[in-house]
């Protein structure tokens, strides 16, 4: 366990960090430890930033749990518009210089930055969410079998549609989001081959706003609903809020992603239209890496979450979803077959 300073210097520590990182994106800190090496978990957000009600907010929930349990100082930094890989790396380097450990880049876009920062600070543990390409001894690649939860979302969609048309809206046309689409489409078709799946990606690159544009998500969902889709699944970060808004306005089902979006305050007025969410427990992955460092046994290499570990799943917060016995039985059966290997879920 790292020794935690009990001297109350929060104001000075926060001011110092804010000054040091002013060129690297906005930040918030909590805790009271000032000494280098005594600071704990720091995260740098992906596109969309804190408040996306999805991917980034899940990472922040993991940070909050670590801060509460270990009583140390934490930091979380926002991305800046049009930033380069060098900007991202400098953000991570600044955190490591301040003594934060571990330091996590939230999202595949941090791959180059994490690799570079980890090489500069070999005694600091780094993590990256949603990338498995870094082969550095002090980096944990926190990845998930998103296609498995998406398959179950496909089962739910096929069982819930009345029009026999469902939709998928992906934020950016990249391999990571292809996993969501592939699993969803397979789950739909395996459940009911007669159901048509409409698929659309909002942008070709993240820089074009595919993960951060609710208006783009809303327009895409409205187009699919006009083509008779009555269940729409979004894997689009902040853009997914627009998909959910469109579904609520047209009185069809939306399926959320990453976090349990039925419970998100910002989406409360739409929650009755959120059938379920295909979740991946980014919060648990972030917290677990922090705990491994705190315990003196840092996780490294590929750390994968799937249905078997419980780190991908479907939410059951909506009573209409949870109380549908036929639907729940179909999902349970599919889940068991995926875990046993009887069903091989496609990732592309």
TrEMBL record:
Entry membrane topology: Lipid-anchor
SUPFAM superfamilies in the cross-refs: Periplasmic binding protein-like I
One family name in Pfam for this protein: Bmp
Domain annotation ABC transporter substrate-binding protein PnrA-like: ranges: 46-347
InterPro entries: BMP_lipoprotein, Peripla_BP_I, PnrA-like
Alphabetical UniProt keywords: Cell membrane, Lipoprotein, Membrane, Signal
Residues making up the signal peptide according to the UniProt record: 1-20
GO CC annotations on file: plasma membrane
Subcellular localization, as worded in the UniProt entry: Cell membrane
Family of the protein in this entry: Belongs to the BMP lipoprotein family.
Stated name of the protein: BMP family ABC transporter substrate-binding protein
Organism: Streptomyces tuirus
